[in-house]
Design brief:
Blueprint lengths: L1 H14 L8 H12 L1 H8 L2 H20 L5 H10 L6 H26 L3
Helix pairs in contact: 1-2, 1-4
């Protein structure tokens, strides 16, 4: 998020100059940052927006290859759902623990809100 923020700000300022003309961010990025010795080369060569586009493309490629992998908790849930004979007691334990949580939360609700 922080890597892309400078590129987004410069891209917005250069894309919408009419709307950002008299704002503080235009004064900071459009005027001061443009004339600083270190950042002027980055500003004039549009390094920040190019880095934003490259970062977006790399993120797209990463998500393209990893979008089908399940997180660890989903794999554990699938293992519980697809139990076999050896896992029967584990499955029953998990079901009973879910039921006990529901009953306890209902009892707690009655204790707090249904006082007579």
């Amino acid at each position: 998020m922080l890597i892309a923020s400078v590129g987004v700000i410069q891209l917005c300022i250069s894309s919408f100059p009419t709307y950002t003309r008299n704002t503080e961010i235009y004064a900071i990025v459009g005027i001061q940052l443009e004339y600083m010795k270190f950042y002027s080369a980055f500003y004039h060569n549009n390094v920040f927006p190019i880095a934003l586009i490259i970062w977006t493309f790399l993120t797209f490629i990463y998500l393209l290859f990893t979008c089908n992998s399940k997180p660890a908790y989903m794999k554990e849930i699938d293992k519980i759902r697809n139990h076999d004979a050896d896992n029967e007691w584990v499955w029953i334990y998990h079901k009973l623990s879910y039921i006990s949580i529901i009953i306890n939360s209902h009892n707690e609700y009655e204790r707090i809100f249904m006082r007579s």
